[in-house]
TrEMBL record:
Superkingdom of origin organism: Bacteria
InterPro entries referenced in this protein's UniProt entry, alphabetically: rRNA_ssu_MeTfrase_G (IPR003682), SAM-dependent_MTases_sf (IPR029063)
Protein name in the entry: Ribosomal RNA small subunit methyltransferase G
Family: Belongs to the methyltransferase superfamily. RNA methyltransferase RsmG family.
Organism encoding this protein: Mesorhizobium temperatum
Keywords assigned by UniProt, alphabetized: Cytoplasm, Methyltransferase, rRNA processing, S-adenosyl-L-methionine, Transferase
Residues reported in the UniProt entry to bind S-adenosyl-L-methionine: 74, 79, 143
Length: 211
């Protein structure tokens, strides 16, 4: 297991209680057990789950500390959705919907939500079938799911209604932004990743389709 520390979590996510840190450490153990059975994340990252996945996910909480209604698309192994659920438990009235169509992965998400009594709801459907079942979000997240043009297409029903997108992207993100701008207008803020020297978190808002 990778070396977890309360300080590293607070550096990535902002103020976090010791109790939440302890719960995330326990979650890492649960994740490792499930990952050996149903391949929730690449085996190459198995020895560094804390940094590569948990801290990488947690940094979104620092970007939007006031947001209470979230939805995570293609939640898979729970990154960033489950990690955010642990952090949102410290925000009164906050919650996150986890959209995941894969039956085994949705079962994992539901098991963790139940075990830790997280403020999260698993929506076991394809994203394009999930819109009526998701509470109106303030923030839409997705990590390692699809290219930015595809993400904007999938999240447009929420982003065109006032939600903001927080999307993890790698070194080639500028190409994806340029391609997206051929179909959409949007406001964009680039946040340097706290865990990846070549990565960014793209914050998109005021999405409008070009005529």
């Amino acid at each position: 297991m990778s070396a977890a520390s309360w300080a590293s979590l607070q550096e990535a996510a902002g103020p976090v209680s010791r109790e939440t840190f302890d719960r995330l450490v326990e979650f890492e153990t649960v994740f490792q057990k499930w990952n050996r059975r149903i391949n929730l994340a690449a085996q190459s990252t198995q020895d560094d789950v804390w940094h590569r996945h948990i801290l990488d996910s947690a940094q979104l909480a620092r970007i939007k500390p006031e947001a209470k209604r979230w939805v995570d698309l293609g939640s898979g192994g729970g990154f960033p959705g489950l990690v955010l659920a642990f952090l949102l438990a410290e925000r009164d009235g906050a919650s996150i919907d986890l959209v995941e169509s894969n039956r085994k992965k949705a079962s994992f998400l539901q098991a963790v939500v139940g075990q830790f009594n997280l403020p999260a709801r698993v929506v076991a459907r394809r994203i394009d079938d999930a819109y009526p079942f998701v509470s109106t979000p303030q923030i839409v997240t997705a990590r390692a799911l699809a290219s930015l043009p595809v993400l904007l297409e999938l999240s447009a029903p929420w982003l065109t209604a006032g939600a903001r997108g927080l999307f993890h992207k790698g070194r080639d993100y500028r190409t994806e932004v340029a391609e997206s701008a051929q179909r959409w207008s949007f406001d964009l803020v680039e946040h340097a990743s706290a865990t990846d020297a070549h990565g960014v978190i793209l914050e998109l808002s005021d999405l409008r389709q070009l005529t």
